[in-house]
Amino acid sequence: xxxxxxxxxxxxxxxxxxxxxxxxxxxxxxxxxxxxxxxxxxxxxxxxxxxxxxxxxxxxxxxxxxxxxxxxxxxxxxxxxxxxxxxxxxxxxxxxxxxxxxxxxxxxxxxxxxxxxxxxxxxxxxxxxxxxxxxxxxxxxxxxxxxxxxxxxxxxxxxxxxxxxxxxxxxxxxxxxxxxxxxxxxxxxxxxxxxxxxxxxxxxxxxxxxxxxxxxxxxxx
Length: 221
Hints:
- By secondary structure, the chain is of the alpha/beta class.
- The protein folds into two domains: about 5-135, Response regulator (Rossmann fold), CATH 3.40.50.2300; about 140-215, Orthogonal Bundle (Arc Repressor Mutant, subunit A).
- It is about 55% helix and about 15% strand.
- It is built from twelve helices and eight strands.
- It has helices spanning about 15-25, 40-50, 65-75, 90-100, 110-120, 130-140, 140-145, 155-165, 170-175, 180-195, 200-210, 210-215, and strands spanning about 5-10, 30-35, 55, 60, 65, 80-85, 105, 125-130.
- A six-stranded parallel beta sheet has the order 2-1-3-6-7-8.
- Helix 2 (about 40-50) packs parallel to helix 3 and helix 10 (about 180-195) crosses helix 11.
- The longest helix has 15 residues, at about 180-195.
- The chain is globular.
- It starts with a strand and ends in a 5-residue tail after the last helix.
- The relative contact order is 0.10.
């Protein structure tokens, strides 16, 4: 990448902070790596330093990560936020995405996945750990099922949608599905039209809210 990535890590476990800090400092393409365990300390760092990416835990002991998200937005933070967490309530997953968080990564992920996720969100893409949304998908109620929108997906549209949930770029989707990049873009526009959205992030949110069972095939049994 042209510029080195400046990272702020917010986690209340010192051992985890030290491990991730060492990992990123040894990784090419990263420069500043700051770490702290409290929201107010993190917000103070935002006012004195510039960061490209914030790695944010949801559960910060007596606080939760959404306090930082709200505070960062109030301060005009322009960087990307990746939730790195052991888990979150299903109701919070949607709120996190709605508030502009770029991705969710579970702490069970490998170091390589963490680095990949950071690079993905830095390139403007979303990163969504399938394990973090599975409980939400499996918990879709019958009432939500009755209210879901009617349009169905073609096999190609469903394949592209699932690839979006894997966090793949248009080029990666094209290689995986043996399509051209223009073909992938065309299918994405079809999905946008069916859901009434304009971005991948909105597509993910609407799919989780209204089409989790029929489009993703992960309904309750």
